[in-house]
Amino acid sequence: MKTILFFGNSLSAGYGVGQSNAFPALIQQKIKAAGKPYTVVNAGVSGETTAGGKYRIHKWIGRQMDIFVLELGANDGLRGIPARETSQNLQEIIDVVKKHHPETKIVLAGMEIPDIFPGRYAAEFRVLFRELALKNNLAFVPFLLEGVAGVPHLNLPDHVHPNTEGHKIMAQHIWKVLEDLL
């Protein structure tokens, strides 16, 4: 049995909907329906930033991971952490995975923040994920929350975290990229 490790924040963890309704669990259902020999491991932690992930990755590096889905950065954006710092942290996580698991396929889940942030920050933040995917030749989901962010009926009352219907859409975005890697 092969393993897909989802390494992320509250989106992966299923904040407000529970892990069984979060997109990694929905991906596991799709894998089972497709008859593929993969098990999903959900390593999502609510509130995680890329800096936290950079230190937490070492806890997971000893585990089998045939596919590594990197879903971090949203909390960096919400906190206004400089895009360059977010990019460096994500690169360090990618480097650690590549060093310890050179055969592992890596999927990067891109994130965007609203253009309401002042100056060039939103644009810089958006582009950092594309640049990392290209530089590292990673499978790439351009915007994990596409069609979900800012859509009231797809989010919890906090207007930040997706509800179960929102997670179904995120699972579709991930599946489009993952399906070819299985």
TrEMBL record:
Gene3D superfamilies: SGNH hydrolase (3.40.50.1110). CDD domains: Lysophospholipase_L1_like. InterPro entries: Ester_Hydrolysis_Enzymes (IPR051532), SGNH_hydro (IPR013830), SGNH_hydro_sf (IPR036514). Residues 6-169 form the SGNH hydrolase-type esterase domain. This is Arylesterase. It comes from Adhaeribacter terrigena.
